[in-house]
Write a structure and sequence with these properties.
With about 350 residues, this protein is mainly α. It has helices spanning about 30-40, 45-50, 55-70, 75-90, 95-105, 110-115, 125-135, 155-175, 190-200, 200-205, 230-245, 250-265, 285-295, 300-305, 315-335, 340-345; strands at about 5, 45. Strands 1-2 form a two-stranded parallel sheet. The radius of gyration is 19 Å and the shape is globular. The two termini are about 30 Å apart.
Length: about 350
Amino acid sequence: MTPPILTTPFTTAPFRYTEPLPPRSATGRTAEIHRQIAEDFGIDGAATFVVLSSAPELLAAAWALMRESLLAGDGSRTGKELAALGVSRANRCPFCVDAHTVLLHATGDHALAERLARGESPEKEVQARMLAWGEATRVPGSADLTPLPFFAGHTAAYVGTALSFHFINRIVSALLTENLLPGNVQRFRPVRSLVGRSVAKTLRRRLVPGTSLALLEGDAGPGPSWAAGTTVGPAYAALRAAATAGAGLLTETDRTLVQDTVAAWDGTHQPLVWDALPDRADRPGARLAMLAALAPYRITDEDVAAWKRPPYTDHCLVQLVAYGAFAAVDRIERALPLDAAASRGVPGRRE
């Protein structure tokens, strides 16, 4: 029997700057992606993916990485939700923090979900370590990155989950409002619990790895070494290829500025104004990409209006934001001390 699917009210979906078509209006490969999201994620019309609909190659790749790591990957779903929640906290993405709190209810760990909703730490040490590890992935060299709080054999799923949400957080912060549900009703405990329970059966299903890879466009390769031999690797490679294609919307000078600034970033949150941030009147594309990477929650109507003029479309804006978002993901991925962390891991401890 197919588990029930939560249908989100599309008419109140919190989109900013783009007007994606409702999933039920999609055709071809895009329709198939939305169908798989609804079936495997348990949410029909999830705004985090609908917002990418104008760029199907990004939609497919972002979904594939999240599915193959968080949903179908090895390890505990509670542990991966904690890692994703830690990432979302580090990136100051209240939409995603609320979403993962609700999904912790779906795992059945209601007490843990509510402790976190109150701003308290998990009671179990290994869960506290998992949350701290997720938060620490943003900052190179953080002490909480080692040892790994999960089995080394589960690295692809946990790292894939963390990197997936470093990307999704930035897309959400740039292109959605903070309202997970209409009126922010997820802030009430009964609503969090009810919504979590509504997707619990779907969440507890064991998904077959690799199903999403058939939805990807082309072959981007096997992916990074930490995901070798898993379906997470090709999904990560596909997202890298789809997101970096947005570089073509910038001049070479602007690309170099974005790349050099992100490469030098230390993981801290930027002040309202900082020296490297270009003026929107002179270099609006570089400014948007840089904000998407380092401070997506600071993108304003004026920033978008300064760049999004004909011939640029919704597809172009999503591509440019994704390019900046993945520039940050790439910096984060390269800085993770995975080999050293695995060698100092604590065997036998489960999240």
